[in-house]
Amino acid sequence: MSDLKLELKEKIIEQLNLEDVSVAEIADDDSLFGDGLGLDSIDALELIVMLDKDYGIRLSDPKEGRKIFESVQVMADYIEEHRTK
Amino acid sequence: MLQEFHIKSYCHIKSQTVSVNGQTIFNDDSEDFSAFIKNAYKFLKTDYPKFFKMDNLSKLAFLAADVLLKNENLNEEENNIALIFSNKASSLDTDRKHQAAIENDAEYFPSPALFVYTLPNICLGEISIKHRLHSENSFFIFDRFNAEHLQLYANSLLRSGKAEKVLCGWVDLDENSYDAFLYLVENEGEIEHNTEEINRLYNIL
């Protein structure tokens, strides 16, 4: 697993307070919303803040998050391409 | 003659202890509220992952309500139980955390998950979602526990037929200082629903 994907899984668990979920239980391609990790709309906003705070990526349109937060793999690819810090 | 009501059950969470009807059901050494309430949640086998996303006031109110309502054989679709809660500190504990996140312009990253809890009545929504309560709910801020107000309001809801039962009480939290006392009012019960009894039960621990 790449360092970034591991880092993202750890951040998701910690910042979204996913008690009883471990890094090993999140596959790179698992859906983060819906039937996957079951995240909700407030979690999506929290992830948008995380992108800005930790990677210097500011989404101008929150709807962009739907695609970016599809899975840890998609998030990691997007961050690699757009990060400013 | 006005219809009279009764207190069927009551719960306290304070001083590292959870008690129901005056009997201790959980006690812990944790002086830190977050650690204490997490231990209580696990001991009581609450099994509701969204609990961990709540702020501390909601965790306190949710667990106190859950202890009482899980014994009520509630309908899975809808329940006509009103909520009348009160406290002194409002949502100050969470308000301070939110303020800390926005007071530095250079590090301005307010948390949406924290911001949504900067009102005390959010805890009523959490309880209503879990137990499918589709009835009236209110949250009052008082200088002290106000049995008179709670009793009058609960009686009014029950007599007007707006609720079949009313879960009332006090849920106050500020940092590691916490005090929850909830009681369920309905037609049947051993304890008369009057201010003397409400105050007696509040002060029982």
Mean pLDDT of chain A: 91
Largest sheet of chain A: none
CATH level 1 class label of chain A: Mainly Alpha
CATH architecture term of chain B: 3-Layer(aba) Sandwich
CATH superfamily of chain A: ACP-like
Q: Please state the oligomeric state of the protein chains shown.
A: heterodimer
Give the proportion of residues in helices of chain B. Answer: 25-40%
Strand residues, percent of chain A: under 5%
* CA-atom Rg of chain B in angstroms: 17 Å
Organism (chain B): Aequorivita lipolytica
Protein name (chain B): 3-oxoacyl-ACP synthase
Pfam families (chain A): PP-binding
Protein name (chain A): Acyl carrier protein
Descriptive notes:
The complex is a heterodimer of chains A (85) and B (205). Chain A has 85 residues and is mainly α. Chain A has a single domain (3-17, 25-82), classed as ACP-like (Non-ribosomal Peptide Synthetase Peptidyl Carrier Protein, Chain A, Orthogonal Bundle), CATH 1.10.1200.10. Helix content of chain A is 52%, strand content 0%. Chain A has helices at 3-15, 41-55, 64-68, 72-82. In chain A, helix 1 (3-15) packs across helix 4. Chain B has one domain (6-202): Peroxisomal Thiolase, Chain A, domain 1. Chain B has helices at 33-43, 56-69, 92-102, 112-115, 122-131, 147-159, 195-202; strands spanning 6-14, 17-20, 23-27, 81-87, 137-141, 165-174, 177-186, 191-192. In chain B, helix 1 runs parallel beside helix 2 (56-69) and helix 2 packs parallel to helix 5 (122-131). The longest helix of chain B has 14 residues, at 56-69. The model of chain B has no long low-confidence stretch (mean pLDDT 96). The chains are: A mainly alpha (85), B alpha+beta (205). The A-B interface holds A 16-20, 42-43, 45-46, 49, 52-53 and B 49, 51-53, 109-113, 116.
